[in-house]
Write a structure and sequence with these properties.
Blueprint lengths: L1 H20 L8 H15 L3 H10 L4 H7 E3 L2 E2 H7 L3 H11 L13 E3 L2
Parallel strand pairs: 1-3
Antiparallel strand pairs: 1-2
Helix pairs in contact: 2-3, 4-6, 5-6
């Protein structure tokens, strides 16, 4: 009986360590990751036609992309502007409209690095 108790105590002590060592974020689906990378590349290209066809091909809305997508640590609009893609940045900015966000505590963004 003592070996069973020792085994149970050792198992109970090791469970929290195993839970902490697991990665906190699940791996991203490869299809989703390639879709987001392609949208980032389309935004960088400065071609509104390419941006439209890419977002339409993946069934994404421009407003959703503009508000939630992060490319290389920047929001997609700033990312496009940093590469001189002013046309695509303006199109994405236009999709947001004139909304000012004052409380951004629960805003979740998707980060993609390529």
């Amino acid at each position: 009986m003592t070996t069973i108790k020792k085994t149970l105590v050792a198992l109970a002590a090791s469970l929290p360590l195993i839970a902490i060592s697991l990665p906190s974020q699940a791996a991203m689906d490869p299809y989703l990751e390639s879709a987001l990378i392609n949208v980032c590349k389309a935004a960088k290209s400065n071609s509104i036609l390419k941006l439209n066809s890419t977002t339409k091909g993946y069934r994404l809305k421009h407003k959703t992309v503009a508000l939630k997508l992060v490319c290389n640590g920047q929001d997609v609009i700033s990312f496009a502007e940093s590469y001189g893609a002013n046309k695509t940045a303006a199109r994405l900015q236009k999709s947001i409209g004139n909304v000012s966000i004052t409380d951004v505590a629960a805003l979740s963004k998707v980060k993609v690095t390529f």
